[in-house]
């Protein structure tokens, strides 16, 4: 009987230890997974295919309407060609910038940290072409951390990394408007990138649901 009572006490004590551990593991498994977004430049590059298809469709429709009934086929073809040409130029610029996305995101983060009016830096495209990046930071705005989604990105300064998950409550953020100027003076705008400051005072790219 004494042995049985000792075994009973042992298993009772063991269950008291195991139960909280099991509950902790279960609670951890129920934590929501973090959903990471892409940078706005990467999103824009990925949308180029659909933009091209849409441009061809709209161009063909407009060409048909303008040409009238008798020249409907020719008008549609010309309109589709014009739409494809416009989309092709825009996508070419976006895709070219996206190939240097590491340098671009570094420049956008530097813009968020910059105390002056406009941030400028030169970026080598690697094909004998060097462009000037120009970034302008917006005023600080407060966005609730619940509406901010961290971004997975790769930068020259930080390597392959991701934005930290920000807690619920007001976070300091800035919109970054930027573009590149080629050697011949031609300019192209980059998609606006949201950046926010973490608890250490460092700025990272984010995506907002607002």
Distance between the termini: 68 Å
Task: Give the integer mean of the pLDDT values.
Answer: 77
Q: What is the radius of gyration?
A: 27 Å
Biggest beta sheet attributes: 7 strands, antiparallel
Uncertain residue ranges:
6-19, 52-68, 74-87
> What proportion strand?
25-35%
Write down the overall geometry.
globular
Number of domains: 2
Helix/strand order, N-terminal first: HHHHHEEEEEEEEE
Number of strand segments: 9
Classification by helices and strands: alpha+beta
Number of H/I helices: 5
Percent helix among the residues? 40-55%
Give a quick summary of the entry.
The protein is of the alpha+beta class and 210 residues long.
Question: Which keywords apply here?
Answer:
210 residues, alpha+beta, 2 domains, seven-stranded antiparallel beta sheet, two-stranded antiparallel sheet, 5 helices, 28% strand
